[in-house]
Structures are given as structure tokens and as C-alpha cells.
Amino acid sequence: MKPSTRWTIVVLVVVVIGIIWLLWTKRDQQPAPAKSPVATQPAAPKPEPTPAPTPAKAEEPVTASVLFDFNRSEIRPGDAPKLDELAARIKGRTFDRLDAVGYADRIGANAYNLALSKRRAEAVQAYLVGKGVDAGRIHTEAKGEDDSVTGETCKNMGPENRKNQKLIECLKRDRRVEVKLAATR
Q1: Which of 44, 113, 120, 143 has its Cβ near the most Cβ atoms within 10 Å?
Q2: Which position has the higher pLDDT, 56 or 122?
Q3: Does the structural domain 63-148+160-184 have CATH classification 3.30.1330.60?
């Protein structure tokens, strides 16, 4: 056997052993979870048979309020359970419409805040659709700076811009989406 043939065989054996060793050491490792600013949804268990839908009681309001970070439209992981609970409460109910109304604080231009509040309402809609709520039954609306929850509480806190952290913190309740069951059958 020629020396070049021997070396070729040795190199091939070393490469094969290296590949086997690499695969052997990686077999027990879990893949890293994907990083995302949006709350991730847990894997859905197999659906159980659902009982016949029961009409919603008029005295039992079905609502949720979700807060957002400044200048953001992603659902915060801490607020996702509120939407999970809402989706669970309406599951199996017969309803015509679910309203998701988005709001923004007063910092920034009114037109920008109106568009931001629309994106927030649409983020809530997308989340609820991911939980099995019919997208055609969710009505989104944007109110922008209208209907402030904080009212006069945050007046005279300095300049109204993104650098004023004290004002941003004070206005956090204005950055929200309110979801409510609007009409039942």
C-alpha cells in the first residue's frame, strides 16, 4: 500500500471519529430558547371536548386591562396572564364582539400616539387569536391620548418628552389596551 493511500485512510478515520464525537457530545443538549420581546405562548395541550356554549351572564363583566412600556406595542410578559385568563373566560361562550381599545400617554405628537395605540390594540388582538379567539369577533380601536386615566395627577412634572423618566413613570396607566366583551348573544 502506498504511503499516500495510508495517509488518506488515516485522515478519513480521524474525520469520522471527530464527527461521531461531536454528535455524541451534543445529543443531551437542549436548544436555547428564542429571545423575544413579546410574551411567548406555552404549548397548547390537546384540546378536550368542549361542552355546549353557555350564554354570558349580563351581571358578569368580562374585561381585562393590559399596560405597555413607553413607546412600545409589545405585550409585556407580566401582562400576558391577564389575556390568558380573559381567553379562558370567554372560551365556550357565545358572543358577537370583543372590543380591544388602545390608548397612549400624552408624550409625543397626537398622530403618532394614535398610531401607537392602534398597534397596541392589534398586538392584543393577535395574542388573543393565538389563544383561539376568533379574529373576526375582535374589534380594535385606537383612542390615542384621549380618555387619560391619570388626568391631572401628572401635571407640572417637567418637560413632556422621553427624557423625563419621572413623567413617563407617572403616565404608565395611560399606556394601555382595555378589552371587554361588548355584545353577547
Answers
A1: 120
A2: 122
A3: yes
